[in-house]
TrEMBL record:
Single GO MF annotation: heptaprenyl diphosphate synthase activity
Cofactor(s), names only, from the UniProt record: Mg(2+)
Keyword Hydrolase (UniProt): no
Listed name of the protein: Heptaprenyl diphosphate synthase
Family classification: Belongs to the FPP/GGPP synthase family.
Gene3D superfamilies listed in its UniProt record: Farnesyl Diphosphate Synthase
Keywords, alphabetical: Magnesium, Metal-binding, Transferase
This enzyme's EC code(s): 2.5.1.30
SUPFAM superfamilies: Terpenoid synthases (SSF48576)
Length: 335
């Protein structure tokens, strides 16, 4: 199995070494957490896990925990809990989006069908719930609230904004629920379970909420600005499924307000037939040259800057510096 361990923010060598060692334990626990005697579930549950991943959420648990006792065993459980929940949501998302690939390999539903992919996601959610019960009642409450937000975020994305809703506010709320909620959980659990100083959990929760939106906005850019070999996903797959992204929302607004030929052409293609790879590639090429892509990148950076301002409430030192570097890598990543 190719290592999926992320790059640890190297601000302080000792801190980086300690976190890297904990990440190794987390990889072992992730594999153990889906162990089962059922042959089918054993293969399907390991599919995306073995494909790799950035392990952003476990990393955030550990960075938050570094303000307290990083060696606390329940911190490892929390790290596995958030990653299992994330993986489960990917199985469901790929069914909703009809995504053919994920992390550079065939998606689960492309290999085994929608029913198996959905049930595999449910299986991972069940294992994550068992972990939260082992950690304690507060973890159960926080995890269940996050699970609810994940479901509502997907629901609201699927249904779309009501006529009276602002589409940009609606989109940011979807990002907050679908992506930021789990990062907020990671930061809060890491700090609380490591017995970090009072108030650290709240700060990390607010940071996670903000940096999660920046992370997803950066993903909107990455979805259009990279190729499948780099990102592990088919470029523009959200366009084919009609899923709104910040660049497309910006283009639609400009088309409605200014009516310029380029914007109107992009909107026509967005609303047209994108079933062929050629049509999708032509639309992606147009969006790659559109100012909306750079505007989205700038918004992601501004939102990341706001998350760093929240970190200023934490004690100065190696851990805060590592979190600032972690924020930078989330927004500037290329995959």
């Amino acid at each position: 199995m190719t290592s999926s361990l992320p790059a640890v923010p190297v601000i302080d060598e000792d801190l980086a070494t300690r976190i890297a060692a904990r990440l190794e334990f987390i990889e072992e626990r992730l594999r153990d957490s889906v162990a089962t005697s059922d042959d089918m579930a054993r293969w399907t549950a390991r599919h995306l896990m073995d494909a790799g991943g950035k392990r952003v959420r476990p990393m955030l648990v550990l960075l938050a925990a570094a303000f307290g006792d990083l060696e606390e065993d329940t911190v490892l459980d929390a790290s596995v809990l958030v990653e299992l929940t994330h993986l489960a949501s990917l199985y469901h998302d790929d069914v909703m989006d009809s995504a053919p690939t994920r992390r550079g390999t065939d998606s689960a539903h492309a290999l085994w069908g929608n029913n198996v992919a959905i049930l595999t996601g449910d299986f991972l959610f069940a294992r994550a719930s068992a972990l939260s019960a082992r950690i304690g009642p507060e973890a159960v409450r926080l995890h269940s609230e996050t699970f609810e937000r994940l479901c509502l975020g997907q629901l609201h994305e699927t249904v779309g904004p009501a006529p009276q809703d602002d589409p940009f506010e609606h989109y940011i709320s979807v990002l907050s629920d679908k992506t930021a909620s789990l990062l907020a959980l990671a930061g809060e659990l890491g700090a609380v379970l490591a017995k970090a100083p009072a108030g650290t959990g709240d700060i990390m929760r607010r940071y996670g909420e903000k940096v999660g939106v920046a992370f997803q906005l950066a993903d909107d850019v990455l979805d259009l600005g990279s190729d499948e070999e780099t990102s592990g996903k088919t470029p523009g797959i959200d366009l084919r499924e009609g899923v709104p992204t910040m660049p497309t929302l910006l283009v639609r607004r400009r088309a409605a307000q200014e009516g310029d030929a380029r914007s109107l052409e992009i909107v026509a293609r967005l609303d047209g037939d994108l079933s062929s790879d050629a049509a999708l590639a032509e639309l992606v090429a147009l969006l790659q040259e559109d100012p909306a892509l750079e505007d989205t990148r700038a918004l992601a950076q501004r939102t990341a800057d706001e998350s760093v301002q929240i970190l200023e409430e934490l004690p100065a030192g190696a851990v805060r510096d590592a979190l600032i570097e972690f924020t930078r890598t989330l927004v500037e990543r290329r995959r």
